[in-house]
Specification:
Elements lengths: L5 H21 L8 H26 L1 H31 L4 H32 L3 H18 L11 H9 L5 E2 L5 E4 L2 E4 L1 H25 L5 H12 L2 H8 L9 H21 L5 H22 L17 E2 L2 H5 L35
Parallel strand pairs: 1-4
Antiparallel strand pairs: 2-3
Helix pairs in contact: 2-3, 2-9, 3-7, 3-8, 3-9, 3-10, 3-11, 4-7, 4-8, 5-10, 6-7, 7-10, 10-11
């Protein structure tokens, strides 16, 4: 068991917060992130993740260092599939490219919080009831098998239950208002489509975490390594999205490779409970080989194909607010004065209930 002092946990959290602050400052103004900028940030985030792994290796030895890198590779590779799902969501809802970074930044921030909770809960459950590893192993093997069967299927945002529930319960405007998540119009606080997209991104990440967290526990039992491998892999997701989103049509065998990785770590987890422990060196080599072969085969089979953005629908569900509509917005968080009636709002389609007819009960 790796005994990590409290100051080490606090130091890692401080580093993560500083990195997030730097990223937020660098992208404080909405702009379209190009391939060159995304590639530069991807190098920065990967260097941070690899550098932390080297630090773990030098401080705690090769075994724990390899466990960290195995977890980091699993999370990073599964994140690529997550990136492609984000591309489908953004394209379906025609989210302007200059607003996508804000959604992904908040989505990654939420992902860190939720995964921290999942990791803490998983550590407690495994420590109290080690036989749960058999259930995790069976789940990973089944998930890998199901991923192979459905590797040609893609998310359909129009059928998302999370989005339908959000639109039914939260009053929402039908237009993007810059990077705003909430607006106030006619004295009523309304969600913008950008908030709905953020909710859908967060829900999909939680679904992916259900696969990735047990997969990392298959290669290491150390909560500190599980969390840091997750965190450093997730921090680079935004840059990875802008780098790879237009290339998803080229990774035709990646989902098959990810499925084989899940099946492999599921088998490793099942064996290590009471039967046989597969050395981390072998496990890491198998993961690297599967990913390298699937990525290499994909790029070879699709060589010569250029970057290609996902086609947006002809009639997207949301539109962009006009300058007049944005100028007419009321301050979002300023409370209304008592007895002051709000000014009439400009015409706009919302999901708010219609006013009652004359004679009906209010």
């Amino acid at each position: 068991m790796l005994l990590v002092p409290l100051w080490a946990w606090l130091a890692v959290l401080a580093v993560i917060l500083v990195m997030l602050a730097i990223d937020l400052f660098a992208h404080r103004r909405a702009h379209v992130i190009g391939v060159r900028e995304a590639a530069a940030w991807s190098v920065v985030w990967v260097a941070c993740g690899v550098g932390f792994g080297v630090l773990i290796w030098s401080l705690y030895g090769a075994e724990l260092g390899q466990q960290y890198f195995a977890g980091y590779l699993i999370e990073k590779s599964l994140a690529v599939d997550n990136v492609f799902v984000w591309a489908i969501i953004f394209s379906y809802f025609a989210v302007p490219r200059e607003y996508q970074h804000r959604v992904l930044f908040l989505g990654v921030l939420g992902a860190l919080v939720f995964r921290g909770i999942f990791i803490a809960a998983g550590s407690v459950i495994i420590a109290s009831f080690s036989a749960i590893l058999y259930l995790f192993a069976a789940f990973l093997i089944y998930t890998g098998y199901r991923m192979i069967r459905t590797r040609d299927e893609h998310l359909d945002p129009a059928k998302s239950r999370a989005l339908a529930l959000f639109r039914r319960m939260v009053p929402m405007t039908d237009a993007y208002h810059g990077q705003r998540l909430l607006i106030r119009r006619g004295g009523i606080l309304l969600a913008t489509p950008l908030l709905a997209v953020l909710v859908l991104v967060e829900v999909t990440d939680i679904v992916f975490a259900v696969d990735s967290i047990p997969a990392i526990f298959a290669v290491t039992d150390e909560p500190f390594l599980v969390f840091t491998a997750n965190a450093f892999a997730i921090l680079g997701l935004r840059a990875m999205y802008f780098l790879l989103a237009d290339l998803m049509h080229r990774f035709i065998y990646l989902k098959l490779g990810l499925a084989l990785v899940l099946i492999w770590v599921g088998i490793k987890m099942a064996l290590k409970v009471d039967l046989f422990y597969i050395p981390t060196t072998i496990s890491l080599a198998v993961i690297v080989t599967i990913l390298a072969v699937s990525i290499g085969a994909s790029l070879r089979a699709t060589r010569g194909q250029a970057r290609q953005a996902i086609t947006e629908p002809e009639n997207p569900p949301f539109r962009i607010a006009t300058p007049a509509e944005i100028a007419a917005l009321q301050p979002t968080w300023r409370p209304r004065r008592a007895g002051r009636r709000s000014e009439p709002a400009p015409a706009d389609h919302t999901t708010t209930p219609p006013p009652p007819r004359p004679g009906e009960d209010r």
